[in-house]
Fold this protein.
Amino acid sequence: MDTRFRDYGAERRASVRAFYQLNHRHQCVDFVRAKRREFLSLDRRRMGVWEALGFLDTLVDDSDPDTELSQLAHLLQTAQAIRAAGQPEWFQLTGLLHDLGKVLCLWGEPQWAVVGDTFPVGCRFDERVVFAEYFTDNPDWGDPVYGTANGLYEPGCGLDQVLMSWGHDEYLYRVLRDHLPREALAIVRYHSFYAAHSQGAYQHLMNEQDRADFHWVRAFQPYDLYSKAEDPPDVAALAPYYRELVDRHLPAELQW
Ligand code: FE
Ligand code: FE
């Protein structure tokens, strides 16, 4: 991995450390279940992709040590990097969409409940999760069930059965579930699960399908990360290409 990115020791943004302290304290089984009940009914509003992108133009991600640009800029940079590599349209579209779940901030959700790396809850927190030392503040820490390696789950049950810490990945996966190919949905759903896709943790909960899907999650990761070094994208110049791509693959409005 290019060491200029995800260097949390550099103290480039002290807010990143403060972010993970809150995230790891509050993301427990009860919290995740409550947020899934609150948001996964997708009955808040109907909204097109372009409207959601417009909102993300106002959002800077506190968990990200690598960029101070808006999330719209980040999505366009990611899509452009995928396009420049000659990757297929569905992959470019996934790059453009992958962080749209951050519209959760639109409904007043704090960033620690929207962004940052994700990890399973309901089983032992792996020390390969970033800032794992803060898990000692989590109510599930040392729980007789949730504190064990398998916790609530059967070994090899597959990640679809696993409650992940709540955030933009699972939320956007549900919004797009009926509209994108399986590989794209895996990227959306697990792109923040760095402990698994980049550190090899939580293999014992995965099944064969997950291992196949994670080929794509890992293929996506460099575009998400390394495109951040570039200059801000020219939104007006790029809009026609991506509007057309969105219009061809997705309905005019999605249920959020
Ligand atoms: Fe993301
Ligand atoms: Fe991203």
